[in-house]
Amino acid sequence: MIENHIRMESPFEFEMGGRIEGLEIVYHTSKPEYSGKEKVIWICHALTANSNPEDWWPQLVGPSKFFDTDRYFIVCVNMLGTPYGTSGPASVDPSTGRPYRFSFPAFTIRDTVSVFSIVRRHLGIDRVDLLIGSSIGGFHASEWLVTEPDVIGKAALIATDVRVSAWLSASCEAQRMALEADQTFRGSDSLDGGKKGLMCARAQALISYRSYDGFVKTQSEADPDTLVATRAASYERYQGEKLAKRYDAYSYWSLCNVLDTHNTGRGRGGVEAALSCIKAATTVIGIDSDCLFPARCMKEWASLIPGADFRVITSVFGHDGFLLESGQIVAILSEML
Fold it and tell me: In the structure, what pLDDT confidence band is assigned to residue 337 with cuts at 50, 70 and 90?
């Protein structure tokens, strides 16, 4: 995948009222240019991933793989707010010469979809043959299906929702509380603040990404005579430290906030009315052990999308099954391609 950059000359206006000059957008494509002849596959990445799906979905994306980078024109845009190039709290504010941190404007799922549209027009793409989004990527994909219904031909919404649930909002608040509990989060004037809080927030989130069976299968103590269980605790700390090495607390905080803005029905007469406008041939894929986006809930709203097909994949790994159960996902998506 090839990294590309766009810098907007005109101000970018945010849905919640803010604006910035010189919006930066980073995105990856499978080829240098779009010829207009290849099928376009647009992948929307998850919360802490980047715009290169070969990095985080290597089983599916790459030369001669299911999403063949030699055959298809594949696009993935780095969403607003991450530290991976597209403008966000980690970007430098030209007016101060320092990272925006808390001064970066509040943004919404719809703002990132606006960024997708900017990239689409820049590339000269009139139609996306297949749009795929998992988790927050599915938030973006479902919003885009409603915003530009004539642009998307087919879509796969995996382990996601069409409106943020109270369960997910509660999880986001717990993670924000972890960040705020770190005195360096507000007290620092650099991106190094809040690292301990970020580790804790990530550890909290990880529990919701997995399942009881998944943790028991992979993190149980091997010794039958163990006096104190430490393996799962060690794994939690490792995952927190791992994210803190590649991410900053301010970007993470902003993305916890943006999750709470997701509502495809806002200003459109409600979710049912919004989903009824979708024209793409849509497949909705749930995971039987996902506690963040239960399959039974996904089935309910999938029925509101005209002609949608609902599927369920089996996994002991909970929400993270969308990253790990590649065989089952390929079996479903192959029917769409």
Answer: confident
Q: How many helices and strands (H and E) does the chain possess?
A: 13, 14
Q: Which of 91, 290, 315, 320 is catalytic?
A: 290
The Cα 321–Cα 331 span in angstroms is: 14
Does 319 participate in catalysis according to the annotation?
yes
Supply angle C-alpha 75, 286, 83, rounded to 5: 40
- Give phi and psi for 23, each to the nearest 5: -55, 130
Active site residue 30: no
Structure tokens at 88: 């966000």
254 is catalytic: no
Q: Which two tokens stand for residue 37?
A: 């002849």
- Could you say which of 135, 142, 211, 254 is catalytic? 135
Place of tokens 């403008």: 87
First to last CA, the chain: 20
Does the pLDDT at position 253 exceed 90?
Answer: yes
Neighbours of 11 (CB within 10 A): 11
Residue 188: predicted pLDDT = 82
- Element of type H or E holding 9: none
pLDDT-wise least confident of 64-73, 91-100, 110-119, 301-310 = 91-100
Here the contacts of 125-128 (C-beta below 8 Å, separation 24 or greater) are 125/34, 125/40, 125/73, 125/75, 126/151, 127/40, 127/151, 127/152, 127/153, 128/40, 128/41, 128/42, 128/152, 128/153
Query: Which is nearest to 333 in space by CA: 161, 160, 162, 155?
Result: 155
DSSP, residue by residue, 133-153: EETHHHHHHHHHHHHSTTTEE
